[in-house]
Amino acid sequence: MAKIDDPITIKSITFRxxxxxxxxxxxxxxxxxxNNWHYMHYGTRAIGGVGLxxxxxxxxxxxxxxxxSDVGIWKDEHISELKKLVENIHSNGSIAGIQIAHAGRKxxxxxxxxxxxxxISSEGGWETIAPSPIPFDPSEKSPNxxxxxxxxxxxxxxxxxxxxxxxxxxxxxxxHAAHGYLIHEFLSPLSNIRTDxxxxxxxxxVRILLEVVNAVKEVWSSNLPLFVRLSATDWVENxxxxxxxxxxxxxxxxxxxxxxxxxxxxxxxSAQIPVEKGYQVxxxxxxxxxxxxxxxxxxxxxxxxxxxxxxxxxxxxxLLGRELLRNPYFVLKAIKNQNWPIQYLRAK
Length: 348
Ligand SMILES: Cc1cc2nc3c(=O)[nH]c(=O)nc-3n(C[C@H](O)[C@H](O)[C@H](O)COP(=O)(O)O)c2cc1C
Known about the structure:
Blueprint: E1 8-10, E2 13-15, E3 19-21, H1 36-47, E4 52-59, E5 71-72, H2 78-91, E6 95-101, E7 129-130, E8 144-145, H3 148-168, E9 172-177, H4 182-187, H5 202-205, H6 207-219, E10 226-231, H7 242-254, E11 259-263, H8 281-288, E12 293-297, H9 303-311, E13 317-320, H10 322-326, H11 330-334
Parallel strand pairs: 3-4, 3-13, 4-5, 4-6, 6-9, 7-8, 9-10, 10-11, 11-12, 12-13
Antiparallel strand pairs: 1-2
Helix pairs in contact: 1-2, 2-3, 3-6
The structure holds flavin mononucleotide.
């Protein structure tokens, strides 16, 4: 039974506690490069005591960005700025992780504060790709159906992104297979109606993710943790669901994935999601039954909630999103014995 302040060791990495920062896009990069905003934003959460910081969805290709301002990891030039970010996080006691991603049919959109609308080429947008030519929003332009060579290229881009993440010094890699982005689009029979070996039955729909995991493992250190974020369900009848997520998680465990980060939704615009306190925790609990470690996330905002999840073995780690945007110092208060930065001791 783990407590809120227990460290956790995964492979060669020990996290000072079991609370992590969930990946959250800042839409503040230029040409994929992180900058002062990211150094301040992530550095503050590291000072604030989290055990792990998963840097936001970082695109493995320019076309894989949700917005033109997403962080990128598609070229070697990105590495040096990412390295500074990693050093900033590590020098403040947290472990730096990064989520690598391709947005698929949800790429080429405006930032939320500019309305999140699909961008056409005259607005700086680009053509999108997906398993099948079905747009996320029926009012949007359809993505192009991917060919075998597109699929191969994407798998290679994930591998190259993982290699750059390692070079930048990240200690945790998370493959983004959730929220209706490219890999999730393949998993769900509602967004994937292919009739070739990448569509149809479960084995075919999960094929691209397993290929990405294999490719990433060619370059990612076998001593470092590998996470996969899944949407455990589409929240829609006949869509991707918890049973398939459990089945997939067993395969991921066999492949050497360490942690499934259990989110949900994002693939079907009409889905009705019963958002409430801890509404995704039971997914982490069910997936953990396969023997793989899980991270719980979603509407978790108090130390009591976190203790309850860990002590009742519903998950091995807890990730916080918006609570850490509201309160970067959440962990300093939530964990009684947390070591405060010496510079802040007079405020303890
Ligand atoms: C501003 C913002 C940006 C986000 N960006 C990402 C992202 O880059 N990758 C991802 O997997 N989830 C992303 N999410 C989802 C969060 O990681 C998290 O799963 C979600 O907010 C639920 O947790 P919470 O209730 O603690 O905020 C984002 C959420 C927010 C609020």
